Amino acid sequence: MEKYLSENFLLHGTFARTLFHEYAVTMPVVDYHCHLSPKDIAEDATFQTMTEVWLKGDHYKWRAMRTNGIDEQCITGNAPDKEKFLMWARTLPRALRNPLYDWAHLELRRYFGINGLLSEETADSIYAQCNEKLKEKEFSARSLLKRMNVKVVCTTDDPVDDLSHHERLRRDAFEITVLPTFRPDKALAADDPVSYNRYLDSLAKASDTNISSYGSLLEALDKRHSFFHDHGCRSSDHAIETLSSEYASASELDTMFSLLRSGKALSGRNRGVFKASLLLELCKMNHARGWVQQIHMGVLRNVRSVIFNTLGPDTGVDCIGDFAFGKPLAAFLDALDSTRQLTKTILFNINPGDNELLAVLAGVFQEGPVPGKIQLGPAWWFLDQKNGMTRHLDALSGLGLLSRFVGMTTDSRSLLSFPRHEYFRRILCNLIGEEMDRGELPGDLDCIGPIIHDICFNNAKNYFGYFTR
């Protein structure tokens, strides 16, 4: 009997299977960090081909295809949709032991009922079957979310976004909660004065503020922060490589901002100081409105200039960084905590070597009455695979409270990516279940079963305050 992707896939013992099938599998999905298009959800978009819904914008797949020697024309170029799909089908069998292999086949099964393996030999048939199903109403954007028992989706949105698509979803009373997330990275991106000033002009227009000083920049950002809050936003998202250990006074920040606004570049040191000081103020806004803040650290972005200059960011040319951020991050959190302005915070790392550092650092700043106020974020991006998740769960278990973990998120741009939650849940249940089988944990389902419920859904629901606003 074929075991691959059977009902007990990744579940290697009696307790693992019981935990998954009786506790994990029925829990709803909270996806508190993703890059789905709110426009597609609001308009209940439909898709003509599998290439459009499955490959477009998915830089995970693009990286694999490049590694398999596929020409860029058949990845992000102007090749016909079917040819791109065929090149993906050629690549997938070569992706054994990469999570893409499991994800792709789970997606074919869970959405399209296709149990066979995708390859060059099966590509034509699978492409035709899937395209035919995409014509059905059950394969529109909203229907795809409902099919996976999704209850909450948090998109990623720039402060200048008008949130009109979120407004439409609220007017439509769509049964899945779709909320914006405040992502002000461009407001901190002071490396290039030309592009930075272009962004400030768009921020000035969106906030109806004349941004002529550092103080007016904060005013504009706070206006947009308030606007997002009024539209249901309850979390922010910040991407940093590392943090400066230094902060500037108000007068120094005014001087730096004036230089930037006049088109002059800051020195390397001052860029770091400016970013850290501004991020501190943004985190104080998060606290003032009771938001959760998510901080993503350590990604070395856009390292291949040929691709970045042609296609832009988020196109598969980022990598794991090895930045030293422990000491400055501790000082940053302490600066907020010392003034009682440290809100609930999720710390995401991309380098597995930082798991233990962040698990311990999170423990330093825990404080009642909020369980797990400071979180080690899920195994994310390059760590979003079996080994990465297991290492993450081990670090969190040994150095924190796994039972308070807010669970998995897709970090995806694809509406077909939600079986990643199933993948995580299988790995979680197997890790705990095997230890129950070996007697390393008690075989007490009344105790451990509810913890599985919490990690899969309840912790995130309570931590973010969904459904109670």
Pick out its properties.
469 residues; alpha/beta; four-stranded parallel beta sheet; uronate isomerase, domain 2, chain A; 50% helix; 2 domains; three-stranded parallel beta sheet; TIM Barrel
Can you characterise this structure?
- The chain has 469 residues and is of the alpha/beta class.
- The protein folds into 2 domains: 46-139, uronate isomerase, domain 2, chain A (Orthogonal Bundle); 143-464, TIM Barrel (Alpha-Beta Barrel).
- Helices cover 50% and strands 7% of the residues.
- It is built from 20 helices and 9 strands.
- Helix 1 packs across helix 20 and helix 11 (193-207) crosses helix 12 (214-230).
- The termini are far apart.
- The model has no long low-confidence stretch (mean pLDDT 96).
Compact overview of the structure:
The chain is of the alpha/beta class. It is built from 20 helices and nine strands. It has helices spanning 14-24, 38-42, 50-55, 59-67, 81-91, 99-112, 123-133, 141-147, 164-172, 185-188, 193-207, 214-230, 250-261, 268-288, 305-311, 326-338, 355-364, 386-399, 419-437, 445-464; strands at residues 29-31, 150-154, 177-179, 235-240, 292-297, 299-300, 319-320, 345-349, 374-376.
